[in-house]
Design a protein that fits this description.
The complex is a heterotrimer of chains A (353), B (158) and C (373). By secondary structure, chain A is mostly helical. Chain A contains 13 helices and no strands. Chain B has 158 residues and is α+β, with helices and mostly antiparallel strands.
Chain lengths: 353, 158, 373
């Protein structure tokens, strides 16, 4: 097995040149910097990808002038946003108004920390992995509600309330569909789930209920991140821009980036739970475990593309139709699915290689 | 029972819609209808009848066909055309005849309705295909259509 | 004059929102004053006049050839049909004999304009309910019609091709071939429109049963065009008072009875098929002849009142001229379809939600310069 033990080497080197306490702190700071970079670069790349994919669906060419094939386009947009004036309303609640974007960023970063990119590249491998992920994604709602309330603007408030209701309802479906897969694996820890999938990806092992769980997860995941066709919240052809109407400049960029990173996280969770994480299909590159990053990114990008395809094809659902979909259709299907999956596991009818 | 048929129907129509956009995505390289404008100026050709701006064609001897009858000035709905004319002695017949000094055309007011070109009896003015008329200084949009030193082509009567 | 909206019946839970003049969903500069309770709309009040350019007053000082170019800018999506209305009014008043060739070409170009307007309507309808790619597909098909217009008439939006007496120029030699290519292309695209939007379950749930207009209300508010026909009111001017070459072709008037948003949508899609069939019947046998009848340089209508109505893409457009025998009309009035269609917005939107209001306005197909003139 060819291993690049980069983390081992850096760890040993740090501990050899500094006392222990300082070395662990420096190590943690280093990891935080790496993850912030991943966050920023992924966000920038995803924004550009969305614009180009949208253009190809719409019979046109996306941004292709700034840099080779438009790769520096988002940098240019970020620099533009930095130079914008930070407007705020007069009677807005200053403290909450400034605090709101940070909630969404923090929840996105914490979720990013637990995702296994490959065997070595896993920042925080706790034994309640999936449970932690679902809990963290609930913190993002606070940011949205605070942003809408503190803007002191009718439109922002309507948008924030709608978004709050939508996110809280769909979290149930996300949790239950992931629970369906945990029934097969029997463990919540993410690295063990991926080890379990060496006998075949979970979507193959749990055939019918796993496929239903995957479809439910994709639908609820799209609704969690307020993306079309569930984007009544920030619908441009309705009331203004929803909860981030009053934000401009860098704070708006935070909300915007956080939405894309949330999309990436949902796709990453789906890859980990259903499609084998960083494992290669049929174990082709088993001997090069660091190639897992490429497999992981390829699968995640495929699911991100699927979510973009949804956005640019379907009309929007009205708010009451959103909630009907969740409480009358997705939730009963989910509950029945868990029972079916439990039956299949008990009767040993899962497919194993 | 309609619960399940509802779900099945819904998924089927959604997948049909996705197939339409998916097909366009796959043929996007050739199917994009964007014209990359400033890059294709060399090959861009407008139609003959395209209404860019009004021009007065001159031949090789710097002669135009405008007799100063003012029919276009009367036909124009909003005063875009102003003709400055005078009466001078015609060389051939020796009689007094109208001739134009300046044909002033306000591009900023023109609505491209083609009434002036339609009514001209001698085909003195016609459509030019140039559409890149933006300027930084508004006075550059007031044009004099007859070139300095040009005169009426002999033999043109209205 | 400052109009202040004073709501005296304001209950405490209701609040008041301005869907202001600049808004992505109101198709122009229209201000809607909404009184909302939670998500339910209680009252809608349109506020017009943001794009009033006094076209009718300008017509009082212009000659009859110059009036035609002003009508281009009223309902700019059916510009050719507007021109045709004024030209027909003047020609009928002067009792001119128009050659067959002119009538047939006017009908073909009118139907092409109708298809172009409905293509844009479809694109914008999809965009309003959230499917953002339909806009581009509609515009791609519209580009082909724009190219046909540009080659023959010279302009893409404000054509000014009809003059009292006929057409300004004869059609370009490539006209027939281009129209036939367009028909073949568009016949493959209309089923795609159906697969993308009409059959979509999300779209059907957004539009079925929303914004219902009964037949009696349609007649009493004066709704015309597809809005009236979707409620069962047979109001097609092309059937009841035919003009140009319409009486030579056979086509169906599309009627539905439900009167909701989905019915209005289906009526317009079906109208596109009917227009294609009209063009197909006419394009192969354009009669030879003159393209213009010479009139005096200065047209003077005899004393009296003259009225002409045509069917634009939005409904019935009427031109009413009062002439005292001079070279300018004494008074010219346009009966615009959008004005009557807008007046029923309060009646059908009350009780629905904000999302329903957007979908309903998209199917009323309002073009605000037509309302404000």
């Amino acid at each position: 097995m060819i291993q690049l033990s980069i983390t081992e080497n850096i760890h040993n080197w740090l501990f050899s040149i500094m006392p222990e306490g300082v070395a662990s702190i420096v190590e943690m700071v280093l990891i935080a910097v790496v993850y912030l970079t991943i966050f920023a670069v992924t966000g920038l790349f995803l924004v550009l990808l969305e614009r180009r994919v949208a253009a190809w669906f719409q019979l046109r060419i996306g941004p292709n002038r700034v840099g080779f094939q438009g790769l520096l386009q988002t940098m240019a947009d970020a620099i533009k946003l930095l130079t914008k004036e930070l407007t705020g309303t007069e009677r807005a609640d200053k403290f909450l108004y400034n605090l709101a974007p940070y909630f969404v960023i923090i929840s996105a970063l914490m979720a990013l920390a637990v995702i296994p990119f490959t065997k070595e590249f896993h920042a925080f491998d706790i034994n309640i992995g999936i449970f932690f992920l679902i809990a963290i994604s609930s913190i993002g709602v606070i940011g949205i509600l605070l942003g809408g309330w503190s803007s002191n603007n009718k439109f922002a408030l309507i948008g924030a309330m709608r978004s709050g209701v939508q996110t809280i309802s769909y979290e149930l479906s996300v949790g239950l569909s992931l629970l369906t897969m945990v029934v097969i694996t029997g463990t919540l820890q993410l690295s063990e789930i991926i080890e379990f999938q060496k006998n075949g990806w979970l979507i193959v092992q749990g055939h019918i209920p796993a496929i239903i769980a995957f479809m439910v997860f994709m639908i609820s995941g799209t609704a969690e991140t307020n993306r079309a066709p569930f984007d009544m919240v920030e619908a441009e052809s309705e009331l203004g821009a929803g909860f981030h109407t009053e934000y401009s400049g860098m704070k708006f960029a935070y909300f915007f980036l956080a939405e894309f990173i949330n999309m990436f996280i949902i796709a990453a969770i789906a890859t980990t739970m259903f499609f084998g994480g960083w494992l290669s299909p049929f174990g082709i590159t088993e001997s090069l475990p660091w190639l897992g990053v490429f497999w992981f990114l390829a699968k995640t990008m495929g699911l991100v593309f699927l979510m973009m395809w949804f956005r640019w094809t379907f009309p929007r659902l009205r708010v009451d139709q959103l909630l009907t979909l969740e409480w009358k259709y997705l939730l009963p299907i989910n509950l029945v699915n868990i029972v079916v999956m439990a039956l299949i596991v008990w009767l040993n009818l899962t497919i194993r290689f | 029972m309609s619960y399940f048929s509802d779900i099945y129907n819904g998924i089927r129509t959604l997948l049909t819609g996705m197939s339409v956009t998916g097909k366009y995505f796959l043929t996007s390289r050739k199917g994009a209808i964007t014209q990359q404008y400033p890059d294709n100026r060399d090959t861009l050709k407008m139609f003959d009848r395209f209404r860019g701006e009004v021009i007065m064609p001159h031949n090789e001897n710097n002669e135009h066909r405008c007799t100063g009858c003012q029919k276009c000035e009367i036909a124009c709905p909003n005063g875009t055309i102003e003709i400055i004319w005078d009466r001078g002695i015609d060389e051939v017949t020796g009689k007094k005849k109208k001739k134009i000094d300046q044909f002033v055309y306000h591009l900023s007011m023109c609505t491209m309705c083609a009434l002036c070109i339609d009514v001209c009896p001698t085909d003195a003015i016609e459509w030019g295909q140039n559409f890149e008329n933006s300027v930084y200084d508004r006075s550059a949009l007031t044009r004099v259509l007859n070139k300095p030193g040009s005169k009426l082509m002999p033999g043109v009567e209205d | 004059m400052e109009t202040e909206v004073v709501n005296t019946n304001f209950k405490s839970e209701e609040y008041f929102i301005n869907m202001g003049p600049q808004h992505p969903a109101t198709h122009g500069v229209l201000r809607l004053l909404l009184t909302i309770d939670g998500e339910i709309i209680k009252k809608v009040e349109p506020d017009l006049g943001y794009i009033h350019r006094s076209i009718e007053k300008m017509c009082e000082r212009d000659s009859y050839q110059q009036i035609v170019h002003l009508t281009d800018r009223m309902d700019y999506l059916s510009a050719n049909i507007n021109n045709e209305a004024v030209c027909l009014a003047v020609e009928n008043a002067l009792q001119l004999e128009i050659p067959e060739r002119v009538k047939v070409i006017r009908t073909i170009i009118g139907e092409l304009t109708r298809i172009s307007s409905h293509c844009l309507w479809w694109g914008v309808m999809g965009m309003d309910v959230g499917a953002l790619t339909t806009y581009f597909y509609g515009f791609r098909d519209r580009e082909m019609i724009n190219d046909i217009m540009e080659e023959t008439c010279g302009a893409r939006l404000t054509m000014n091709y009809n003059v009292p007496g006929g057409l300004m120029l004869d059609i370009h030699p490539n006209f027939v071939k281009r129209v036939k290519d367009f028909i073949t292309h568009f016949k493959t695209k209309l089923p795609e429109y159906d697969r993308l939007l009409t059959g979509n379950i999300i779209f059907q749930k957004r539009t079925i049963g929303v914004g219902i207009l009964s037949k009696e209300d349609a007649i009493s508010f004066g709704a015309s065009g597809p809005v009236g026909r979707a409620s069962g009111y047979s109001c097609d001017v092309r059937k009841h008072h035919p003009y140009s070459a319409i009486d030579k072709v056979t086509f169906n008037e599309v009627l539905k009875t439900e009167g909701d948003t989905y019915a209005r949508y289906l009526v317009r899609i079906q109208e596109m098929w009917e227009s294609l069939s009209i063009i197909e019947q006419l394009i192969d046998n354009i009669p030879e002849g003159e393209h213009r009848v010479t009139t005096n340089a200065v047209i003077k209508l005899p004393k009296g009142e003259f009225y002409q109505k045509v069917e634009t893409a939005r409904g019935e457009l009427g031109v009413y001229i009062i002439s005292t025998g001079t070279k300018n009309p004494y008074r010219l009035k346009f009966r615009s379809p959008g004005f009557s269609n807008l007046s029923l917005l309060n009646h059908i939107a009350v009780g629905g939600k904000i999302g329903d209001l957007v979908a309903t306005m998209a199917t009323l197909d309002l073009v605000i310069p037509d309302i404000d003139r």
